[in-house]
Amino acid sequence: MNELKNDRFLRACLRQEVDRTPVWMMRQAGRYLPEYRTTRQRAGGFLKLCKTPELACEVTLQPVDILGVDAAILFSDILVVPEAMGMELTFGAGEGPKFPQPVSSRADVDALPVPDPEAELGYVMQAVETIQRGLAGRVPLIGFSGSPWTLATYMVEGGGSKNYAKIKGMAYNEPAVMHALLEKLADAVAAYLNAQIAHGVQAVQIFDTWGGILSTRDYKEFSLQYMQRIIEQLNRESRGRRVPVILYTKGGMGWLEAIADSGCDVVGLDWTIDIDMARQRIGHKVALQGNMDPAMLYARPERIRQEVKDILARFGHGSGHVFNLGHGITPDVPVEHAKAFITAVQQESCRYHG
Question: Annotated catalytic sites, by residue?
Answer without folding.
Answer: 27, 31, 40, 77, 154
